[in-house]
Specification:
The protein is of the alpha+beta class. It contains six helices and eight strands, in the order βββββααααβββαα. A five-stranded antiparallel beta sheet has the order 4-3-2-1-8. Strands 5-6-7 form a three-stranded antiparallel beta sheet. Strand 2 and strand 3 form a beta hairpin. The radius of gyration is 28 Å and the shape is elongated. The N and C termini lie close together (6 Å).
């Protein structure tokens, strides 16, 4: 499947050939500068889990293996879990994004309003339309973004900010018009409040879905007693250390996770029972 473990990372044994490789786990966090990738490779002689990672502390490598004839059992799990860390990060980033965008937009609106008062005329209807259009465009962008991306709740939060400013403009325009600073004109701001409420609800839903993270576990047991030489736990380790490659054991499922779950048992059984014949058959499939 495109990843060659032998020769590139591990010295092969005599007449050892790669049967199939799976990119099974992946983790990338720009927030803490950490990346980790995990690969499970089956050869005609052994099963090898190889992971490499990088962080601000440097690069690291993790490897575990078991002779293929010693494999006695395989267990899998693939599902989702709710990450409190992702929830907190999403709330913080969406809050900061709303504050920044809202502050910049409020400053721009204040300047335009002051200009209108000085001229004794009103161009606030155009501003209202602009806010509404921006809110709709950002909302559309949010709906077209993958639910596992932090961009989705950020965009919906920014849309809620634009709609909130649109709704708040009703008090500003009505107040200025009643004081005679600007001409009284029709307003579209009455739709701002319900749109802001709707966008806020959507933001909360997006944060919830972003916090639901995929996970998987894999355990390959050996005939040599109650040992599990290869184990991907699927549970997060929140410790702070430089062993980035270890994160591949607790990372999210990667592109070949489904194929790994569906094929690994049959692959190992074929190689165990038919040797190189079974290995060649799976090599052709891959």
């Amino acid at each position: 499947m495109g990843y060659k473990l032998l020769k590139n990372y591990v010295t092969p044994a005599e007449q050892e050939l790669t049967v199939k490789s799976y990119h099974c786990t992946s983790l990338a966090s720009q927030l803490i500068g950490l990346k980790a990738e995990g690969y499970l490779t089956v050869t005609n002689k052994r099963v090898v889990f190889h992971a490499f990672g990088s962080s601000y502390g440097g690069d690291s490598v993790l490897q575990s293996e078991v002779p293929i004839e010693d494999v006695s059992g395989i267990s899998f799990y693939k599902g989702t879990y709710f990450s409190i860390l992702h929830l907190l990060v999403a709330f913080f980033i969406t809050w900061v994004s709303s504050i920044v965008v809202g502050g910049l937009a409020a400053m721009a609106l204040g300047a335009l309003t002051a200009s209108s008062i000085q001229r004794g005329s009103s161009n606030l209807m155009g501003i209202q339309i602009l806010l509404g259009v921006l809110g709709i465009l950002v909302s559309v962008a949010s709906f077209s973004t993958d639910k596992e991306s932090i961009k989705k709740p950020v965009l919906s939060a920014v849309a809620a900010t634009f709609f909130l400013l649109l709704g708040g403009g009703s008090f500003l325009t009505s107040g200025l018009a009643s004081l005679g600073f600007i001409p009284r004109e029709s307003s579209i701001t009455s739709i701002g409040w319900p749109l802001a409420l709707l966008a806020t609800v959507v933001t909360l839903v997006n944060i919830f879905w972003y916090s639901r993270r995929p996970t998987m576990s894999l355990a390959i047991s050996s005939k040599g007693g109650a040992t599990t030489p290869i184990q991907i736990s699927g549970f997060r380790n929140f410790g702070i250390h430089n062993a980035a490659a270890i994160k591949a054991l607790t990372a999210e499922p990667a592109e070949h996770a489904e194929a790994l779950i569906g094929e690994l048992g049959a692959l190992i059984l074929d190689v165990q029972t038919t040797g190189d014949i079974g290995a060649k058959r799976w090599t052709k499939k891959g």
